[in-house]
Amino acid sequence: MAKILKQRNYHEDVRMGSFKGKDLISIKDLSKEELLHILDATSKIKGKELLKGKVLATLFFEPSTRTRLSFESAMSKLGGAVIGFGSPNITSISKGESLHDTLKMVESYANIIVMRHPVDGSVRYAAESVSVPVINAGDGVNQHPTQTLVDLYTIKETFGKLDGLTIGFLGDMKYGRTVHSLAYALSHFKVKLVFISPEELRMPEHYLEELRERKVSFTEIEDLEEVSQQLDLLYVTRIQKERFPDPVEYERFKGSYRIDKSVLLQSKQGMKIMHPLPRVDEISMELDATKNALYFEQAKNGVIIRQTLLALLLGTIR
Amino acid sequence: MKQQNQKKAKLFGSRKLSFRGIKNFWVPKKHGGVFLKEYKISAISEGTVIDHITPEATFKVIEILNLDKRPDLIISVGNNMSSKQIGKKGIIKISGSFLGADDANKIALIAPNATLNIIKNFKVTEKKQLKIPEKIEGIVKCFNPNCITNVERVPTKFTVTSRDPLKLLCAYCERRMKREDIILL
Ligand SMILES: [Zn+2]
């Protein structure tokens, strides 16, 4: 039965309310109604017994302490148990065994699987190998849908809506999976997007093409000052050092895409600031205590969203 | 004789000539200046003819349709044959077997101009233009080196999101390929 339900996941929208037994692999598999349904279902997370007797396996073939802890916390809070590994080096699993075989083995120990892997598309493949639900916690540069749901939830909680907002993205638009995925999710709503990055880190054409096809209103600029008066929200991303062969270049970008309190002076009043964390030094700590900072809120919301997803896919809430 | 041929060439240029029922070509002088017979592969009484295949794709078509693994069928293949429409073409004639549209559509991706003719009693009873299917499984390689289909032994799966211009969406890594990105497996 679970297998049949899963096949519908293949780039097709499914009818709402049928999350039980399904996977969560890509934000693109979810319709607008399903996205909103997940956000609303957070209100159904009450009590500590929802997932009692259930086992979650967290398979992290690539380390991501934050995401893993967030899932483990979510499962424990609902009374479930957690097994798994946080890095493939501590197991014999990565040594030659195919992903398919690893997953088949884990399937017999767990009711639901959360998986992160450095190869694009690996989690969808893994999900096809087993009949228990699989949640993607990051596959290469491709998808990290629970992060996107956390971001949407944080925006909706803060502004009370997802329509009518002007949202700026600052930093690395080229490699930033978080940005690509959130921009896609926001394309279901009436928003204006502004991508602010150096020329070298502009959003790749294939993502822009997709946004154009989905009739999203967006602009690309290099300087935050040009738009900060119009932004309701500024989403800041990491500029990773390893993307730059020349360390001098890196220092230059790092400096010009770093924000501190002075940004607030030029911005629209009450502009909120988000960041997927961990930050390096894109955001000055002096912003942490301001009402504008939402990034710790985001991290906190990670747990409630993941609790909701676990309960929805295991069918203990609808 | 040679002189006579050259006279003809003056009259008709290097156009195709029909001479006593056999199609002949005049090869220009710099290439030898002779008449060549056009080789045709024989007509079939019943079966399927796939015509107007891009010459580079002819043998790939045989592979995709598994025709190389059918000892029960008589198959004739011609390649680099002259075609008014596409310059040169490949043609495959399968005696005694009628290829379904679903099977044939698999080759539309590599041979976009190909036509499918169903022959009964030496006559073409059905002529179909091939159409690229909505889903393509196997056949094409994903162009993303970090895609699971290029890392483990996973058969590829694509959704055709647009036919013109051609766009394929990888079901695994979600990257979109254009015609120029397509590599056959
Ligand atoms: Zn792929």
Ligand kinds:
zinc ion
How far is the first residue's CA from the last residue's CA of chain A?
Answer: 18 Å
Helix content of chain A: 25-40%
Instruction: Identify the CATH architecture of the largest domain in chain A.
Output: 3-Layer(aba) Sandwich
Q: Give the ordered list of helices and strands of chain A.
A: HHEHEHEHEHEHEHEEHHEH
Instruction: Give the radius of gyration of chain B.
Output: 21 Å
Give a short account of the largest sheet of chain B. Answer: 5 strands, antiparallel
| Strand-pairing-aware structural class of chain A | alpha/beta
The ordered H/E elements of chain B are HEEEEHEEHEEEEHEEEE
| Overall residue-averaged pLDDT value of chain B | 81
CATH topology name of the largest domain in chain A, in short, is: Rossmann fold
Unreliable parts of chain B: 1-22
Percent strand of chain A equals 5-15%
Poorly predicted sequence stretches spanning 5 or more consecutive residues of chain A: 1-5, 7-16
Structure overview:
- The complex is a heterodimer of chains A (318) and B (185).
- Chain A folds into 2 domains: 2-144 and 302-313, Aspartate/ornithine carbamoyltransferase (Rossmann fold); 145-299, Aspartate/ornithine carbamoyltransferase (Rossmann fold), CATH 3.40.50.1370.
- Helices cover 36% and strands 14% of the residues of chain A.
- Chain A has helices at residues 2-7, 32-41, 65-77, 99-107, 122-129, 145-159, 177-186, 205-213, 247-256, 261-266, 295-313; strands spanning 55-60, 81-85, 112-117, 134-139, 166-170, 192-196, 217-221, 233-236, 272-274.
- In chain A, the strands form 2 sheets. Chain A has a 5-stranded parallel β-sheet with strand order 7-6-5-8-9, with no helix packed on it. A 4-stranded parallel β-sheet of chain A has the order 2-1-3-4, sandwiched between helices.
- The longest helix of chain A is centred in the C-terminal third of the chain and has 19 residues, at 295-313.
- Chain B has 185 residues and is mostly beta strands.
- Chains A and B meet through helix 5 and helix 8 of A and helix 4 of B.
- Bound molecules: zinc ion (ZN).
- Zinc ion is lined by residues 142, 144, 147, 149, 170, 172-173, 175 of chain B.
